[in-house]
Structure formats: structure tokens, C-alpha cells
Write a structure and sequence with these properties.
By secondary structure, this protein is mainly alpha-helical. It is built from two helices and four strands; from the N terminus they run αββββα. Keywords: Coiled coil, Hydrolase, Metal-binding, Zinc, Zinc-finger.
Length: 193
């Protein structure tokens, strides 16, 4: 009987140890299940993040392609812009040259108008009607002779018409009065500048 009691106590201790091991195993199992659940949730979260990242990557790739196309269009437009700037500069230079030629032509036309007007207006004053110099108003005499200005046609004394200038109507310099001399000098200096 004592032997049975000892065996029974030993069996109880073994049962207690097994119960403790079983309890430890259940705790471990519960902990592992919790860890596994956390791992699964984390894995699912990572998969969702991966899907979102792939979508973002695809969107970025699409934007990169669009930017490449826009860059190519920009390069084409930049080349066209440079070409247009060159064309505009050439046209501005041409316009400046045309303006200069037009200005010269206007000056020449003005000169031609003045010459033709002066030729139309320049009628020689009759010697008999001129008793005094047109400029200084001194009376003509044997010593103070009459001289016609070849530009305006009026009659002057020697001192008021002691200038010579080339005129379009003559091949060599001819006598002109002081007033016409000043006027012609201004016209020539304006046409040269």
C-alpha cells in the first residue's frame, strides 16, 4: 500500500509537471498565435503599401514620359523661337537700312524740290529795274556794278555776291549771293550728315 501511495504521489507530481508543461505550451502557443497574427497583419499592410507604391511608380513613369514629350516639344519650340528671333533681327536690320535709304531719298527729294522751286522762282531780275543792291541797298553806279545771283536771280553788288557754289544747273561753281550761299551750305551739310 505504501508503495502504491508513493507511486500515486509520483504520478501526481508527474501529472502536475505535465499540467505545468501543458500550461506553458498553451501560453507559448497563444503567444505564437498572437505573433503570427501580428506578422500576418504587418505582411498585409506591407502588401497594401507595395500595391500603392507600384501605382505611384506607374504614375511617376507616366509623368516622366509626359515630361520627356514636353521637353522635346520645348526643344522644337526653342529652336523655332531662336529662328524667329534671327528673322526679326534680320528684318529689323533691313527696316533700318530701308529707313536710312528712305531718309536719304526724302532728303534728295527735298533737295530736288528746292532746286526745281528755285529754278521756277529764279527769274532773272531785269538790269534796268535794279537801282539798288537787294541786300545792302547801296545804289549801283559805274564803280558799283550789278551782279546776278545764279541761284535766286536777284541783283546784288560785288561785295554781297562774292561767293561761288556749284549748282545742279551748272557744271562749274557760279556766283551766288550771301543769303543763297548760306542756304546752300546748310542744305549740303544736312544732306551729308
Amino acid at each position: 500500500y505504501e508503495e502504491c501511495v508513493l507511486q500515486k504521489d509520483a504520478a501526481r507530481q508527474t501529472a502536475q509537471k505535465l499540467s505545468d508543461k501543458l500550461s506553458d505550451g498553451e501560453i507559448q502557443s497563444s503567444s505564437l498565435e498572437t505573433d503570427l497574427k501580428i506578422e500576418r497583419e504587418w505582411r498585409q499592410s506591407l502588401q497594401e503599401t507595395l500595391v500603392k507604391d507600384r501605382e505611384i511608380h506607374a504614375e511617376l513613369q507616366r509623368k516622366i514620359m509626359e515630361m520627356k514629350k514636353q521637353n522635346e516639344e520645348y526643344q522644337v519650340l526653342k529652336g523655332a523661337h531662336i529662328q524667329l528671333i534671327s528673322t526679326v533681327e534680320n528684318q529689323e536690320r533691313t527696316l533700318e537700312e530701308l529707313g536710312a535709304h528712305l531718309s536719304e531719298s526724302k532728303l534728295k527729294m527735298a533737295d530736288l524740290r528746292d532746286v526745281s522751286k528755285s529754278l521756277r522762282d529764279a527769274q532773272w531780275a531785269p538790269d534796268k529795274e535794279a537801282t539798288h543792291c537787294k541786300l545792302c541797298e547801296k545804289e549801283f553806279s559805274i564803280s558799283r556794278r550789278r551782279h546776278h545771283c545764279r541761284h535766286c536771280g536777284n541783283i546784288f553788288c560785288h561785295s554781297c555776291s562774292d561767293n561761288t557754289m556749284p549748282l545742279p544747273s551748272s557744271a562749274r561753281p557760279v556766283r551766288v549771293c550771301d543769303a543763297c550761299h548760306t542756304q546752300l551750305l546748310q542744305r549740303y551739310s544736312n544732306s551729308e550728315s
